[in-house]
Amino acid sequence: MKILNNKLSKTLSSESISFVSTPNKGGEIIPDSIIIHFTAGRSAESSVEWFKNPEAKASAHLVIDRDGKVIQMVEFNHKAWHAGVSRWSDRSGFNNFSIGIELDNPGRLTKVNDRFYSWFKKEYPKDVVVEARHKHEQEISYWHNFTDRQIESCFNVCKLLMENYNIQEVLGHEDIAPFRKNDPGPAFPMESFRAKLFGREDDTADVYKVTANQVNLRTGAGTEFQIIDKLQSDTKVEFVKSKSGWFYVYVLSKNIDGEPLYGWINGSLLRKA
Ligand SMILES: [Zn+2]
Description:
The protein is built from 4 helices and 24 strands. The protein has helices at residues 44-52, 148-164, 173-176, 190-198, and strands spanning 2-4, 7-9, 17-19, 25-28, 33-38, 62-64, 70-72, 78-80, 87-88, 91-92, 98-103, 108-112, 115-117, 123-124, 129-133, 140-144, 169-172, 207-210, 215-218, 227-231, 236-243, 246-256, 259-266, 270-272. Residues 205-273 form the SH3b domain.
Protein backbone atom coordinates (compact mmCIF):
# COMPACT_ATOMS: atom_id res chain seq x y z
CA MET A 1 0.00 0.00 0.00
CA LYS A 2 1.23 3.50 -0.85
CA ILE A 3 -0.20 6.99 -1.30
CA LEU A 4 -0.20 8.48 -4.78
CA ASN A 5 -1.84 11.86 -5.47
CA ASN A 6 -3.56 11.77 -2.06
CA LYS A 7 -5.12 8.39 -2.78
CA LEU A 8 -4.25 4.94 -1.48
CA SER A 9 -2.95 2.55 -4.08
CA LYS A 10 -1.82 -1.05 -4.03
CA THR A 11 1.76 -2.24 -3.89
CA LEU A 12 0.69 -5.90 -3.65
CA SER A 13 -2.09 -7.45 -5.69
CA SER A 14 -3.42 -9.13 -2.53
CA GLU A 15 -4.25 -5.76 -0.94
CA SER A 16 -7.91 -4.80 -0.96
CA ILE A 17 -8.18 -1.07 -1.62
CA SER A 18 -10.85 0.73 -3.61
CA PHE A 19 -12.06 4.25 -4.24
CA VAL A 20 -15.75 5.18 -4.21
CA SER A 21 -16.36 8.88 -4.72
CA THR A 22 -18.87 10.99 -2.83
CA PRO A 23 -20.25 14.50 -3.33
CA ASN A 24 -20.06 14.97 0.45
CA LYS A 25 -16.73 16.75 0.61
CA GLY A 26 -15.19 20.20 0.78
CA GLY A 27 -12.14 22.12 -0.38
CA GLU A 28 -8.48 21.45 0.14
CA ILE A 29 -6.97 20.83 3.57
CA ILE A 30 -3.51 20.13 4.98
CA PRO A 31 -4.15 17.19 7.32
CA ASP A 32 -2.28 17.08 10.65
CA SER A 33 -4.57 14.78 12.67
CA ILE A 34 -6.39 11.49 12.31
CA ILE A 35 -9.82 10.89 13.84
CA ILE A 36 -10.97 7.30 14.44
CA HIS A 37 -14.70 6.50 14.31
CA PHE A 38 -17.07 3.58 14.24
CA THR A 39 -19.82 3.69 11.64
CA ALA A 40 -22.66 2.56 13.95
CA GLY A 41 -23.90 0.90 10.77
CA ARG A 42 -25.04 -2.48 9.46
CA SER A 43 -22.06 -3.14 7.17
CA ALA A 44 -19.18 -1.36 5.46
CA GLU A 45 -21.19 -1.44 2.20
CA SER A 46 -24.23 0.22 3.79
CA SER A 47 -22.00 2.91 5.35
CA VAL A 48 -20.34 3.61 1.99
CA GLU A 49 -23.80 3.89 0.39
CA TRP A 50 -24.87 6.32 3.09
CA PHE A 51 -21.74 8.47 2.69
CA LYS A 52 -22.45 8.65 -1.07
CA ASN A 53 -25.92 10.04 -0.41
CA PRO A 54 -26.04 13.89 -0.53
CA GLU A 55 -28.78 13.77 2.12
CA ALA A 56 -26.37 12.22 4.61
CA LYS A 57 -24.27 15.40 4.66
CA ALA A 58 -21.59 13.08 6.09
CA SER A 59 -18.57 11.24 4.77
CA ALA A 60 -15.13 9.98 5.74
CA HIS A 61 -11.81 9.64 3.99
CA LEU A 62 -11.77 5.90 4.65
CA VAL A 63 -14.14 3.12 5.62
CA ILE A 64 -12.52 -0.08 6.90
CA ASP A 65 -14.46 -3.33 6.75
CA ARG A 66 -14.24 -6.10 9.35
CA ASP A 67 -12.10 -8.16 6.97
CA GLY A 68 -9.56 -5.30 6.72
CA LYS A 69 -10.72 -4.13 3.28
CA VAL A 70 -10.20 -0.36 2.81
CA ILE A 71 -12.57 1.88 0.85
CA GLN A 72 -11.41 5.46 0.27
CA MET A 73 -14.10 8.07 -0.44
CA VAL A 74 -12.33 11.43 -0.21
CA GLU A 75 -8.76 12.35 -1.22
CA PHE A 76 -6.59 12.99 1.85
CA ASN A 77 -6.02 16.64 0.87
CA HIS A 78 -9.76 17.35 0.73
CA LYS A 79 -12.21 17.93 3.53
CA ALA A 80 -14.49 15.03 4.49
CA TRP A 81 -17.50 15.61 6.73
CA HIS A 82 -16.81 13.29 9.66
CA ALA A 83 -16.07 15.32 12.78
CA GLY A 84 -18.97 17.79 13.15
CA VAL A 85 -18.77 20.28 15.99
CA SER A 86 -15.48 19.34 17.58
CA ARG A 87 -12.83 20.58 19.93
CA TRP A 88 -9.62 19.28 21.49
CA SER A 89 -7.31 21.40 23.61
CA ASP A 90 -7.44 24.84 21.99
CA ARG A 91 -8.45 23.71 18.48
CA SER A 92 -11.90 23.32 16.96
CA GLY A 93 -13.49 22.41 13.62
CA PHE A 94 -11.53 19.19 13.03
CA ASN A 95 -12.89 18.65 9.50
CA ASN A 96 -10.55 21.45 8.44
CA PHE A 97 -7.35 19.56 9.28
CA SER A 98 -8.09 15.91 9.99
CA ILE A 99 -8.40 12.62 8.16
CA GLY A 100 -11.47 10.63 9.21
CA ILE A 101 -11.31 6.84 9.40
CA GLU A 102 -14.59 4.97 9.91
CA LEU A 103 -14.44 1.37 11.14
CA ASP A 104 -17.43 -0.80 10.32
CA ASN A 105 -19.00 -1.55 13.70
CA PRO A 106 -22.59 -1.23 15.01
CA GLY A 107 -21.38 0.44 18.22
CA ARG A 108 -23.04 0.07 21.59
CA LEU A 109 -25.21 -3.02 22.08
CA THR A 110 -28.17 -3.45 24.38
CA LYS A 111 -28.55 -6.58 26.50
CA VAL A 112 -32.08 -8.01 26.67
CA ASN A 113 -32.61 -11.41 28.35
CA ASP A 114 -28.97 -12.37 27.82
CA ARG A 115 -29.10 -11.50 24.11
CA PHE A 116 -27.38 -8.55 22.44
CA TYR A 117 -28.91 -6.08 19.99
CA SER A 118 -27.69 -3.03 18.09
CA TRP A 119 -29.65 0.23 17.91
CA PHE A 120 -31.12 -1.06 14.61
CA LYS A 121 -32.41 -4.18 16.38
CA LYS A 122 -30.04 -6.72 14.87
CA GLU A 123 -28.99 -9.48 17.22
CA TYR A 124 -25.28 -10.27 17.65
CA PRO A 125 -23.70 -13.41 19.14
CA LYS A 126 -21.98 -13.25 22.53
CA ASP A 127 -18.53 -13.86 21.08
CA VAL A 128 -18.44 -10.40 19.44
CA VAL A 129 -19.52 -8.57 22.59
CA VAL A 130 -17.05 -6.54 24.66
CA GLU A 131 -18.17 -5.60 28.17
CA ALA A 132 -16.47 -2.35 29.14
CA ARG A 133 -16.94 1.09 30.63
CA HIS A 134 -16.74 4.03 28.24
CA LYS A 135 -14.27 6.61 29.53
CA HIS A 136 -16.97 9.29 29.63
CA GLU A 137 -19.40 7.10 31.58
CA GLN A 138 -19.75 5.60 35.04
CA GLU A 139 -21.46 2.31 34.17
CA ILE A 140 -20.24 -0.74 32.28
CA SER A 141 -22.04 -1.40 28.99
CA TYR A 142 -21.79 -3.63 25.89
CA TRP A 143 -19.94 -2.89 22.66
CA HIS A 144 -19.37 -4.75 19.41
CA ASN A 145 -15.75 -5.84 18.99
CA PHE A 146 -13.33 -4.86 16.22
CA THR A 147 -11.52 -7.65 14.38
CA ASP A 148 -7.73 -8.00 14.45
CA ARG A 149 -7.61 -7.58 10.67
CA GLN A 150 -9.60 -4.37 10.92
CA ILE A 151 -7.33 -2.91 13.61
CA GLU A 152 -4.22 -4.03 11.73
CA SER A 153 -5.49 -2.47 8.53
CA CYS A 154 -6.31 0.77 10.38
CA PHE A 155 -2.83 0.75 11.92
CA ASN A 156 -1.11 0.25 8.54
CA VAL A 157 -3.10 3.09 7.02
CA CYS A 158 -2.29 5.42 9.95
CA LYS A 159 1.40 4.56 9.71
CA LEU A 160 1.37 5.31 5.99
CA LEU A 161 -0.48 8.60 6.57
CA MET A 162 2.14 9.59 9.15
CA GLU A 163 4.86 8.94 6.58
CA ASN A 164 3.11 11.06 3.95
CA TYR A 165 1.62 13.91 6.00
CA ASN A 166 2.69 15.82 9.08
CA ILE A 167 0.34 13.91 11.42
CA GLN A 168 0.69 15.11 15.02
CA GLU A 169 -2.25 13.43 16.73
CA VAL A 170 -4.54 10.43 16.50
CA LEU A 171 -7.77 10.88 18.44
CA GLY A 172 -11.18 9.27 18.78
CA HIS A 173 -14.35 11.09 17.75
CA GLU A 174 -15.30 10.74 21.44
CA ASP A 175 -12.24 12.89 22.34
CA ILE A 176 -13.10 15.80 20.08
CA ALA A 177 -16.88 15.64 20.59
CA PRO A 178 -17.32 14.18 24.09
CA PHE A 179 -20.89 13.66 25.39
CA ARG A 180 -22.19 13.95 21.83
CA LYS A 181 -20.18 11.04 20.39
CA ASN A 182 -19.00 7.76 21.91
CA ASP A 183 -16.96 6.33 19.05
CA PRO A 184 -14.75 4.39 18.62
CA GLY A 185 -15.58 3.44 22.26
CA PRO A 186 -13.86 1.10 24.72
CA ALA A 187 -13.68 -1.90 22.34
CA PHE A 188 -11.05 -0.02 20.33
CA PRO A 189 -7.57 -0.28 21.95
CA MET A 190 -6.82 3.45 21.58
CA GLU A 191 -4.01 3.72 24.13
CA SER A 192 -1.93 0.84 22.80
CA PHE A 193 -2.77 1.80 19.21
CA ARG A 194 -1.42 5.32 19.71
CA ALA A 195 1.56 4.09 21.73
CA LYS A 196 2.54 1.70 18.94
CA LEU A 197 2.00 4.35 16.29
CA PHE A 198 4.01 7.06 18.01
CA GLY A 199 6.55 4.65 19.50
CA ARG A 200 5.77 5.59 23.09
CA GLU A 201 6.99 3.05 25.61
CA ASP A 202 4.35 3.60 28.24
CA ASP A 203 0.98 3.04 26.66
CA THR A 204 -0.93 4.70 29.49
CA ALA A 205 1.28 7.79 29.53
CA ASP A 206 -1.59 10.12 28.77
CA VAL A 207 -3.95 9.37 31.67
CA TYR A 208 -3.44 10.78 35.18
CA LYS A 209 -5.38 10.59 38.45
CA VAL A 210 -6.03 13.44 40.87
CA THR A 211 -4.36 12.58 44.20
CA ALA A 212 -6.34 14.77 46.65
CA ASN A 213 -9.86 16.06 47.21
CA GLN A 214 -11.06 19.52 46.19
CA VAL A 215 -8.23 20.00 43.70
CA ASN A 216 -8.57 23.25 41.80
CA LEU A 217 -8.94 23.19 38.04
CA ARG A 218 -7.89 26.64 36.80
CA THR A 219 -8.04 28.75 33.66
CA GLY A 220 -4.25 29.17 33.57
CA ALA A 221 -0.94 27.73 34.79
CA GLY A 222 -0.72 29.40 38.23
CA THR A 223 -2.68 30.04 41.44
CA GLU A 224 -3.52 33.56 40.28
CA PHE A 225 -5.87 32.11 37.66
CA GLN A 226 -9.61 31.64 38.16
CA ILE A 227 -10.98 28.31 39.47
CA ILE A 228 -13.25 26.52 36.96
CA ASP A 229 -14.10 23.48 39.06
CA LYS A 230 -12.94 21.37 42.01
CA LEU A 231 -12.01 17.73 41.38
CA GLN A 232 -12.22 14.82 43.80
CA SER A 233 -9.47 12.30 44.49
CA ASP A 234 -9.08 9.61 41.77
CA THR A 235 -10.75 11.70 39.06
CA LYS A 236 -9.11 10.67 35.79
CA VAL A 237 -7.75 13.32 33.46
CA GLU A 238 -6.07 13.12 30.08
CA PHE A 239 -2.85 15.06 29.61
CA VAL A 240 -2.88 17.66 26.82
CA LYS A 241 0.19 19.84 27.52
CA SER A 242 2.30 21.20 30.38
CA LYS A 243 3.83 24.53 31.36
CA SER A 244 6.14 25.28 34.33
CA GLY A 245 4.92 22.45 36.55
CA TRP A 246 1.25 22.82 35.60
CA PHE A 247 -0.67 20.38 33.42
CA TYR A 248 -3.39 21.36 30.99
CA VAL A 249 -5.81 18.43 31.10
CA TYR A 250 -9.10 17.15 29.79
CA VAL A 251 -11.32 15.82 32.60
CA LEU A 252 -12.80 12.37 31.85
CA SER A 253 -16.33 11.37 32.94
CA LYS A 254 -17.27 14.93 33.84
CA ASN A 255 -18.67 17.92 31.99
CA ILE A 256 -20.31 21.27 32.61
CA ASP A 257 -23.68 21.61 30.85
CA GLY A 258 -22.58 19.07 28.24
CA GLU A 259 -19.39 20.97 27.43
CA PRO A 260 -16.06 19.17 27.79
CA LEU A 261 -14.09 20.22 30.82
CA TYR A 262 -10.52 21.41 30.31
CA GLY A 263 -8.22 23.29 32.66
CA TRP A 264 -4.89 23.59 34.46
CA ILE A 265 -3.91 21.52 37.52
CA ASN A 266 -0.68 21.75 39.50
CA GLY A 267 1.41 18.72 38.46
CA SER A 268 2.14 17.78 42.10
CA LEU A 269 -1.54 16.85 42.54
CA LEU A 270 -1.50 14.27 39.73
CA ARG A 271 -0.06 10.82 39.32
CA LYS A 272 -0.02 8.38 36.41
CA ALA A 273 -3.20 6.31 36.31
ZN1 LIG B 1 -17.73 9.39 14.62
